Amino acid sequence: MLKKIVVPVLLAVSLTSLNCYAADDSDSVLKSEKEDVKKGAKKESSSVQKFAENIENLRTYQADFEQRVQNENGKEIDFSSGRFSIQRPNHFRWEVKLNFEQLIVADGDHVFTYDPELEQVTVQNQSKLLADSPLLLMTSDAEALAEAFNITTVDLADKPDSELFQLTPKKEGNIFDSVHILFEKNKIAELLMADTLGQKTSVKFSNIQVNQKLDSAQFSFVIPEGVDVIDSREVPLENGSE
């Protein structure tokens, strides 16, 4: 899969040094994480419960996003922006509008990645992507999350209206080491991710709307005629069908 789509689907590149509280302090989130480990994180069971409450209170979510990717040397290697929508359970739409065009749609059963420039669609089973896809975390239920991830709370004593959760995969072989999800006033404000190659990604959200009625049609995808289809499902879809 193309490197451009790492955050939404399998190739998540992670935790940018641009953090959610001080954009000029590139290491503050990682430092906060290390300090939190020294002090002792809150009990995981409590963190799982609180994280689950925050996620499950979001029936729908939509926002503009800006994504920045840095390599292992801290150099920014990619920037993109667009629109992101969620309809729980298990539906999301990630539409990149700048600096390239790309559309990713999860319809509850499959994840479609459409690259207009390449005239190509990739189809994957959604159920197999949870452990490797940060965006799917927002659409999943608490039980599935607890089975796939260790969840802890990072102390933000100076941010009473904010909560930062660290999720680390329980199984080996994942493409990222950790995912941080920042909530501000019970709204998802930023995703911070660190992958196994040392790359870092930040996705910041703005113009956030929660629990508004959304058009369900935006969470379905019809494969355009004439495009190449890379179908990794056990039972391939027919071209042009959902």
Provide a quick synopsis of the model.
The protein is mainly beta and 242 residues long. The protein has a single domain (3-231), classed as outer membrane lipoprotein receptor (LolB), chain A (Clam), CATH 2.50.20.10. It is built from four helices and twelve strands.
Q: Describe it for me?
A:
By secondary structure, the chain is mostly beta strands. It has one domain (3-231): outer membrane lipoprotein receptor (LolB), chain A, CATH 2.50.20. Helices cover 15% and strands 39% of the residues. It has four helices and twelve strands, in the order H-H-E-E-E-E-E-E-H-H-E-E-E-E-E-E. It has a twelve-stranded mixed β-sheet, with helices on both faces. The longest helix has 13 residues, at 44-56. The radius of gyration is 17 Å and the shape is globular. The protein starts with 27 loop residues before the first helix and ends in an 11-residue tail after the last strand. Residues 1-26 and 37-42 have low confidence and may be disordered. InterPro entries: LolA/LolB/LppX, OM_lipoprot_carrier_LolA-like, OM_lipoprot_carrier_LolA_Pbac.
Q: What is the rounded Rg?
A: 17 Å
Number of extended strands: 12
What would the principal axes of the Cα set say about the shape? globular
Helix content: 10-25%
CATH-defined architecture = Clam
CATH superfamily: Lipoprotein localisation LolA/LolB/LppX
CATH topology: outer membrane lipoprotein receptor (LolB), chain A
Helical segment tally?
4
Distance between the ends? 20 Å
Helix and strand sequence = HHEEEEEEHHEEEEEE
Return the structural class.
mainly beta
Would you state the CATH class? Answer: Mainly Beta
